[in-house]
């Protein structure tokens, strides 16, 4: 109980009384099917009811005092309770949960076993959060078809941008033997509705290249674990595999030997894993090989793999994180923010139907604040998947509190106008704007082998919330937080309010004491943890802020800058292009302005920087006080674990505050109006 290992699945026992009596009526399970996903649902329901009621539920022949779970047409009790009208509303992965009060029974019914599993987890969530279940009448379908998690795990056991220990999948260049831990991870993912996992890092080195050859038997064992939880396994592949492990002299996508090599290897993969999902590819990106080496483009490259996967129903997920990572800081024409759109937009229409482009939410790289990537929605004839990062690379590395759901909500609700009004990102991600067959959302995981999975216990909410939000982008950040808190800490109203406020206020607090007004990348090179205003200013990565004595920001306007703004549709283009209309929080992303420029808030840029940095630290201090107010209401070890991180956050926030304030005071020579302490 003190480890955090159970995360949101640590069902707490109810005491006789109120809900207990209500729930105890449904203490038997009626099931008629035997396939493995249904069996998973049964064992999850058994485990959950046992935890909540304190007794092992029995199996019932009949529907009285029972929860019937099953697919339509295969379970008489489900069929009795669920009407044809309801069935018509249920898609491939959806489900109904209906109470039949008269007969004291309940049905979790779906068109597929996967749907039954999701419905079962939904019911458990209701029980575990103490909901009224006497009159349930729920119809639910996922909004997104692909609901993916990406591990950035390497076979040596390290996790790229991992902040919670080592990999649970790999160790010493082998696949781990600890399948129990992997199974528990599968449970967590399935419980929030995720249905695909890429188990290895997009940066595929020599040894990981062999996951599709030498290590295939072990990969198949992992696929079997995930299969029971309705999750498809995918692999990241190395574009240069034909050379590196295939003994060929080229990886040219138009070379017939290369094409043949991929076809054979892919056939082997499907022989071992018949329901294999497909390949994820990072090509021509950050020194990874790709089709550019051979004078080919990304349509050529991805289509070659798509052709190999197509006979088996597999897909290629091709990342659009392609930019020049060897830029010269003196070169003011190249703008990294433009890169993805410039590379991919002209290729629209050339991709096979089983290719999906995976696009990061912003044009740069998961900063605290970035505009939404203009490539999302800009290719009507191409499948796209939106990529988020649950791992807190630039958002405090799971040492600072940062609830990511509000940020993702803003992105999902962003109106692109790609097909006029009514084209928000969430409808592009789901495929509904352009009518894509394949669409959805992916995100980089934040877990590792630390006992509580995420390092910072409260960072579990981001994994939980990711799944819930991808299932239904219309859920609110408040509701998701509340659910998670109840599942994790129980039903105490005060704790719920305190933790909820902490979570909801956390992103703004972090943004306050770190990079101001959308400027980004004022971080320590490589580790990306902590402040270093000029850390990347003269580097090759294309992430500059151009601060001088007079002003700061990147002119990305069409009129006088890099022209990036023109990648947006009207009226977003005009809004970002105009200094007067550009939203404050993105000002320095789009414009270079003097420190004396007056924001919509009425403050000058320099005063805004000072104010937010002082306020940020004060608010971070308040978070600590709030957390301490909960001492005694929860497991002591867990409380202490979080308290330590929260205190570290405050100390580190002070470092941010002072470095940033001093930097800008020295650059501008303008004093703080409020005369607070800024080191000169
Ligand atoms: O943000 C950058 C990270 C790299 C990562 C890359 C990517 C996996 O700093 O560590 O590599 O993005 O998304 O490919």
Automatic annotation (TrEMBL):
Keywords: Carbohydrate metabolism, Glycosidase, Hydrolase, Polysaccharide degradation, Xylan degradation
Catalytic activity line of the entry: Hydrolysis of (1->2)-alpha-D-(4-O-methyl)glucuronosyl links in the main chain of hardwood xylans
Enzyme Commission number(s) of this protein: 3.2.1.131
A Pfam match: Glyco_hydro_67N
MF terms (GO), sorted A to Z: xylan alpha-1,2-glucuronosidase activity
Domain Glycosyl hydrolase family 67 C-terminal: 454-676
Domain of life: Bacteria
Enzyme class (EC, first level): hydrolase
Family membership noted in the UniProt record: Belongs to the glycosyl hydrolase 67 family.
Protein name: Xylan alpha-1,2-glucuronidase
Annotated organism of origin: Paenibacillus allorhizoplanae
Gene of this entry: aguA_2
